[in-house]
Structures are given as C-alpha cells and as structure tokens.
Amino acid sequence: MANFEQGLCHYVARMSHAAASLRAETLPLTSFVDDGRRLPLSKPLVLQVSIEDGAYFVENEPLHLFAKGPSLEEAVDAFTADLVYYWRYYNSLRDDEVAGAGVELKRIYEGLVKA
User: Fold this and answer.
1) Structural class in CATH, domain 24-110
2) C-alpha span between 31 and 84 (Å, rounded)
C-alpha cells in the first residue's frame, strides 16, 4: 500500500506541476479564417492557455473572449469562431451604435486585421 500511495503522491505532484506550468503559457494567434480567406492580424493576439479538469481554456482579456475544448486545438478553434463572430459584429456597427466598453471593443476589432 505504501508504494501505491507514494506513486499516487508522485503522480499528483507531477500533474499539479504540469497544470501550473500550463496556466502560465501563452499562445500567439497570427491570423484567422473568414469565409475561406485567411486574414492576417495586425499584431499577434496573445491567448492565455490553461487546463482544468482535462479541459483546455484559451482567453484574451482585452477582447473579453474565452473558449474551452477537450484539446488545445479545439479550444483555439472555438475561440477563433467567436473571434470571427465578434470581429464581424463590431465592424458592422457605426460609431453612434456603441457606448461604454463597446467603444473600446469596436476600436480593437477595427484594428485587428492588417489593412
């Protein structure tokens, strides 16, 4: 039993260390696809990556966007789908149609893609 407990403690310590190191990771997003066209970003978008209970989370605080998935690739795909939606949405609005935090978000989304 002592070997099992020792092995379990070692495994838990390794997993905790791996999860803690992954929480500190970032991933640059340099483009996204909209209607089959790859659009390069004006500067890389930094995604914070974390893992919790086997699920991957990616987020970008300035855009107030986050997504999760069973794999890092699926979390990034979900994030990108939301990014495209909000990029289209904010670019469709006139300046007089936004207020408060929406003004800053509109400015960020308008400058997201290289001209």
Assistant:
1) alpha beta
2) 11
